[in-house]
Amino acid sequence: MEASTKSFCLPSSLKASILLVDDEPMVLKMLQTFLESQQYRVFCAPGGQQALSIIEQQGQTIDLLITDIRMPDMNGIHLLEAVRQLLPALPVLLMTGYTDFDLVVDGLKQHAFDLLFKPIDFEQLNWCISKALAFQMTQRLEQQYRIRLEEQVANQTRLLCNQLEELQEAQRKAAEVDELKREFLSLISHEFRTPLNGIM
After folding, report:
1. Residue 119: enclosing H or E segment and its boundaries?
2. 51 contact partners, CB below 8 Å, separation of at least 6
3. More confident residue, 32 or 13
4. Whole-prediction pTM value?
5. From residue 156, how far is each of 55, 119, 145, 164 by CA, in Å?
6. If we measure between CA atoms, which residue out of 4, 26, 13 comes closest to residue 130?
């Protein structure tokens, strides 16, 4: 486990932002204290509705969501479904103190990143967070690369379109010049034939 933790550790200077959601104040405080000791920036919400408000305010600055499954106002699965509409790529860790098999299956269907069982093992939590943040970083780098690639393709397409328009314009002008040449030669030929016919 130690080797895995080290291989996924991110520099603390990154200060990733984690949204922590749990309706049990003691659990929320305990996890907040631990995460802040690991140099993470922590937002706390006692329920799903408050968590959605924070996500709407903070948007892309949230790097990871950790939420309890069983909560009175909105359970973790419904929160996960709502988050998928707002931030589809946000990794979500689910926590539960119960054998919620059906809820766990629903969470996996909504692409929850991982599942943690209470009482939370801090070493496992740290390992899961590191994996999730590494995944998030990979996703963002891939998105940035895709955006740059699309911009390059768009620029090249515009350049080729401009070159094609210039080529078509050059061809049009060349065709006009050829037509003028034909008209000029036809006129000169006619003018030479008329005096020659008279002389003959």
Report:
1. none
2. 19, 21, 45, 65, 67, 79
3. 32
4. 0.62
5. 37, 56, 16, 12
6. 4
